[in-house]
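Course assignment 3, question 2. Fill in each field.
Student: A.L.
Task: Predict the tertiary structure for the chain below.
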Amino acid sequence: MILYLLRHGIAVDRDTGEYDRDDDRALTQSGQRKILKEAVAMRTLGLVFDRVLTSPFVRARETAEIVSEVFDELDDPTILNCLAPADEDLSIAESVGRVLPELRAHAADRTLVVGHEPDLSQLASALLTAGHGLRLQLKKGALCAISLDRIEASRSNVLLWLLAPKQLRLIARAASSKS
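Answer field:
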């Protein structure tokens, strides 16, 4: 099984006062364009997703929807409330612990999970080290792939790769220049 973790794209800054609630902040036009290019790069790389799971927050849902449109054979993204940013009062173990059972229930062989920081990095760390010993930070639009037998914290899981958003956009640019 491969679990792909994608951080949502660039959203409207929370300090603009444009949105009353953080959950409602949408992707900027630039964020939408960048995620579209990154999704094209994912397609160019030959990635295949059986299922897309996303946070209920608007910026994550929009990111998941853009990817799903590029991969037109995909069903609509499945919204999982556990992928919303964790309460700051939760420990890392509690934060990851609330996500793992839901991932087990909804994941397929090749699942794309769209979410937020620091939750995605904490999830990756737990999956790869059976704890939180891996310091990792996903930039907006970054994508990583983790190979695992089961969705559980284990040292036998393997980080296949981690691509920064700029790397993904360079792949998309190279692919478009060949066409």
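Instructor remarks: The beta strands are 2-7, 51-54, 78-79, 110-115, 143-147, 158-163. Residues 50 and 119 are 22 Å apart (CA to CA).
Grade: pending
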